[in-house]
Every structure is written in C-alpha cells, then in structure tokens.
C-alpha cells in the first residue's frame, strides 16, 4: 500500500533551510513571504487496510520519520 | 497566496536518504517496501491569481527549488 508522509517543522521552530530558501528566492527577484522546508517520504507499506497502514505509519513517524518535539507530520494513504 | 511544493528524486535516480530510511524501518521491524525521500516547501507567494502563483512557482522550481535533471516537482496552490 502506497503512502506519503509530510514532515514539517512546527510553527515557531527555527527553520534555517526555509530561511535560506526565502533569502535566495528574494535575491533572485521572486516576491515571496515566509518559506518553510520539510521532508516528503513516499513509502510502500505492507498492511491489510488503509487504516492499518495509517496506524503503522504513525508508529514509524514517532520512532524514526519525524522528531515529534519539533516536527509535525501528515499521513496520506493511497487507496 | 499559500502554496506547497513537493520535490522528489526522479524514478531511477539513486536516493541514499530513502535507502537509509528503508533500512532503518526494517531494522525496527516495520515491513516496508521502497522508501523515497524528498522535500516539501511551503511558500507564501505574492501573486494576483492561483494561475499566476503557479507559473511563478514553476520558475522558482526551475531556478532554485528543484534540480530538474534529477528531481521532479509538484505544485499545489491553496485557493
């Protein structure tokens, strides 16, 4: 079962990569406001149902894919 | 106007970060197939319409946000 996980720095957490992107875009002449950079993880999960896949991926996020202290995550399971 | 850009390694392009995630998840006992890791960029763009924002962000992707040789990108503009 295919799934996509979006991991983002939480609001208020310093995001140096996002700041670098923001500065560079402005230097190139693009009128942008805030930019934040996170990770997208595409996964192939062995699960019996979309719900089972989702709860399995939640455990993966808590243990490895995200740092819950400073990052939030969003899980999309493809039907 | 808020937008989200997903930047992913193209199929066939080596993805060491994805391989590391895959190996680590298996070592933790999670039954996963392939894992691929890319970037998610949340942007605030100054544009007159969603279409204008999209074409502006396409130019940002070509110039800075992605490496079109080895990465593909997907743009979602929030209405």
Report on this model:
Two copies of one chain form a homodimer. Chain A is an alpha+beta fold and 79 residues long. Helix content of chain A is 35%, strand content 37%. The first copy, chain A, contains two helices and three strands. Chain A has a three-stranded antiparallel β-sheet. The longest helix of chain A has 16 residues, at 50-65. Chain A is elongated, with a radius of gyration of 16 Å. The model of chain A has no long low-confidence stretch (mean pLDDT 97). Chain A binds chain B through residues 6-8, 18, 21, 24-25, 28, 30-46, 56, 59-60, 63-65, and chain B through 6-8, 18, 21, 24-25, 28, 30-46, 56, 59-60, 63-65.
Keywords summarizing the entry:
homodimer; 79 residues; alpha+beta; three-stranded antiparallel sheet; 3 strands; elongated
Write a concise synopsis of the structure shown:
The structure is a homodimer of 79-residue chains. In chain A, 35% of the residues lie in helices and 37% in strands.
SSE topology:
2 copies of one chain form a homodimer.
Chain A: E1 2-9, H1 16-27, E2 32-45, H2 50-65, E3 71-77
Antiparallel strand pairs in A: 1-2, 1-3
- Which radius of gyration of chain A do the C-alpha atoms yield? 16 Å
Total number of helices of chain A: 2
- The run of helices and strands of chain A is EHEHE
- Principal-axes shape call of chain A: elongated
Assembly type of the chains comes to homodimer
Helix content of chain A: 25-40%
The unreliable regions of chain A are: none
- Biggest β-sheet of chain A, characterized? 3 strands, antiparallel
Q: What distance lies between the first and last C-alpha atoms of chain A, to the nearest angstrom? A: 8 Å
Pairing-aware structural class of the strands and helices of chain A? alpha+beta
Query: Largest chain interface and its two residue counts?
Result: A-B, 31 and 31 residues
Number of strands of chain A: 3
What share of residues are in beta strands of chain A? 35-45%
Mean pLDDT of chain A: 97
Strand order of the largest sheet of chain A: 2-1-3
């Amino acid at each position: 079962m295919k799934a996509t996980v979006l991991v983002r720095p939480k609001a208020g957490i310093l995001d140096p990569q996002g700041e670098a992107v923001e500065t560079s875009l402005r230097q190139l002449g693009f009128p942008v406001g805030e930019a934040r950079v996170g990770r997208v993880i595409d996964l192939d999960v062995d699960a019996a149902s979309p719900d089972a896949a989702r709860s399995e991926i939640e455990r993966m996020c808590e243990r490895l894919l995200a740092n819950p202290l400073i990052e939030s995550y969003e899980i999309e399971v493809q039907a």
